[in-house]
Amino acid sequence: MANTTLAAQDSRLHRVLRHLGHELRLVLPPTLFFLVGFNLIVFTQNLVLSEYLARSINFLVATTAALVVGKAVLVADKMPFLRRFDNAPLILPILFKTVVYWAFVFIARLLEALIHHIVETGRVVGFGAALAEQFSWHRFLFIQIWILVLFLIYTTAAELNDLFGDGELARILFRHRSSELKQTRRQRIRTLARLSRLTENQPTSVLRDPATPAHRELVGLIEQLAQDAGRRRGGAGG
Question: Largest Cα–Cα distance in the chain?
Fold first, then answer.
């Protein structure tokens, strides 16, 4: 009985740790991206203001903001409506998700200001007046504009990564040698585009029939992709 209880506890602990590890892997990329982006904004803004002996928000605040943004992205990604443009041309999901992410962060930052107001005054009443009279809207909007730009960059990279799949974008950027594999990558993308058009325009029954030209084209494209993959592995190994 005791062994069964211990096994059940170990199983629950394993599930919790696995869930936490999964959540961490999801939140880490946007957090690191915005950590670098926000601190660069703070650094450059402080350089501009240095001759006026003024200081902008510090790096600790920027780091905290990056954590808020990373969590906001994680929450937004769980919303089903965020996938409504997944089958549209790539520019639509990029712009739609950028605006949604930006709106989530906008709301999160206003909630953060509300929490600060409650901590300082002990009440919710008067928050609207404090926003109108004391809140630094110039700084708030300055940061929101840059958040919009950063989200546009981040969402574009994320959508391209999903499009290529299986970590291909990271391999293209950091592992493959451009001078040797640029032509191979270009051919691979063109082949994948032809393969996508073929599967969209032909029914499955036609693609399965060895006697049809569509089937022969399908096999040829797959063989070409396999050859490209072999050349890429050979180039990376060399």
Answer: 78
